[in-house]
Structures are given as structure tokens and as C-alpha cells.
Design goal:
- It is a single chain.
- The chain is built from nine helices and nine strands.
- The protein is α/β, with parallel strands linked by helices and 352 residues long.
- The protein has a five-stranded parallel β-sheet with strand order 6-5-7-8-9, with helices on both faces. A two-stranded antiparallel sheet has the order 1-2. It has a two-stranded antiparallel sheet with strand order 3-4.
- Helix 3 packs parallel to helix 9, helix 4 packs parallel to helix 6 and helix 6 packs parallel to helix 7.
- The longest helix has 39 residues.
- It is elongated and about 105 Å long.
Length: 352
Amino acid sequence: MSTSASEQKRIGIFGKLRRHWVRWSIATFVAIFIAAELFSRFYLGLGDPPLSMTDAKMEYLFKPGDYHRFGNHIFFNQYSMRSGPVTEHKTDPAELRVLMVGDSVINGGSLTDDSQLATSILQERLHAALHRPVFVGNISAGSWGPPNELAYLEKFGLFDADALVIVVSSHDYADAPDFKPVVDVNPAYPSHRPVLAVQELVMRYLLPRILHTQDPPDPGTVALKTPDKKDIEWCLESLRQMIRLAREHGMAVIVAQHWQRNEIEPGVPAATGQIAQADAARDEHVEPVELGPAFKQDVDAGHNPYRDVIHPNAEGQKLIADTLYPILLEQLSNRTKNTTVPTTFAATRPAN
């Protein structure tokens, strides 16, 4: 049975409309996809996360590289420090070096620009005050504990540094490595850049929230559950060993205790971890420097130096630098005069 001319015309028109709709749908999808990619990459700042690599002793550390994330510049040098390039040994006899070791508190994360880090602020201030080349190395990674930090120093050495600053929080007294796979298992520790920024938006942020499988929190953001005694011993002994290692190389040593937001509240006694780490430092004749009073004073003045319960924001990073600057200035000034460098600093926890 043959179709009439009118039916053929109708079929032809329908076919043209269907092809037009398919082309329009594809064009719309491509336009939306490109817009989403541009929005994710240039507005949200995704697509260029700091990369990590596995290490047998440290568990993981950052891959050297130049990254741009959430509008912030993030640079890791050839030794995985969040600092500018450095040589293994000094090449300028006038240079002064400080190493600061810690976890995400001093690392700053992707929400902090390199220029806002306490280590960057200290380097600039010390250079201006001493009129000499100064390098302040930021040796850190999220969720590192004292054993991870000691492993770094044992692997890479002390870079002819003049001072070592060890920054600890109360939870660090039991933050021992478990060596469970992290890199490319936890989305926060990728080893390769995503092909697309929108891919990272979906896989790292949207799907985990939809499926309720968000990244596990940093150990500092939650209370520890009955810490294992072996972990406590490991962490405290690692702290002592870092102090001894620095002393063996003639370095000044500062142990700085960072307080969580809940620990600066009025009437809150010192945390168990704070007391244990302070005692471990005193075992090695180092009196801890407390960072908490500066944070408490800032909060009491109506400001907020915290990003969450533990991590300092840019204002908090400046407070860390403000507290450590006069101590480091004194120690480095003493070194320029070839005098004996004391390694104890008087500091007490004020009454809340």
C-alpha cells in the first residue's frame, strides 16, 4: 500500500524536526558541559589538587609541584615541603634556616594561600629583621603525627637548619600511623590530576555527599576513642627523638602546642594530650610554647582565627607567626653572634 503525498510530506517534516531536536540536544549538552567545566575550574578552582605519593615510613607525603586550588597558590618543593626550593645543604654561609614540622594545622590545606602560611610570614619577617637570607621550611601533611614527622627528618635530614619548631595539638599524643592505604583510596589524597575539573566536582564532592561517604575527618576534628597505649608511647617517644635529633645537630628546639577551639573555652582544663606532650618535651629540657593564649585573646576580641574546631584560617596562621616570631628572632640573632643558643622558653598556660 503506497503512502499518499501528504503523508510522505508529514513524515519528512517529522524527520527534519527529530534531527533538529537531536542536534539541538547535543549542542545544549555540550554547552552545559563546557559551562560546568569552566565554572568548576575557574570559579570553584577545581581540577588541580595537590597530589600525594605513598611512602613506606611516612605513609604518604605531597608530590613536588606547583598547584592552584580554590584560587590559592600551593607549592611543594623538591623535598615535599610547602615552601620554596631549598638545597640539601647551605650554599651561603650567611643563610639562616628554620624547619617547622606538623600536620594540617601548619600545612594550611588548599583553603590557605602560600603567602598566608605562618611559615611564609615568619620567613619574610625574619629576613627583614635580620638582613640575611632566611628559609623557613614547612614540613607537613594532613593527619601526620609525630612518628610521620620523625620519619621525614630521618629520611631527608635537617638541611643544615639552625632551629626546629615542632607544632603539636592535643590529639597528636596518640596519632600513630596505621599504614592503611590512603593515596588514591581517600579522595583527598589523589596521585594524579583529574582529566576534568567537573570530574573532580562530581567524584570528590557531589557523589560522596549523595552517597554519604564523605572524606573521613582529620583526627584533630574528632575526639579520640580510648587511645592505644602503644600508640601513645610511640608518639611521645617520636617527639622526644625529634628533639634529640635536632640537638645532636646543634639546633635550637621549640615545641609549640596548638589548642583546639574547644580547648580555649573558659574553665576547660588542659587536655590529656597537651599534658602528656608537654611532659615529654620537658623530659628533654624544652619548655613548650603555648599558641592557645593568642587564639583565645583573638576570639575574646570578637574575631575568628579558626576554620573549624582545630584548623587555623589565615588569621590563625598569622597568630602562630606572631607568637613564634620573637622567640625565633632571639634564637637566630644569638646564632649570628656565635653565642650559645638556649633551648628552653618560659611559657605557662594562663587561667581561663
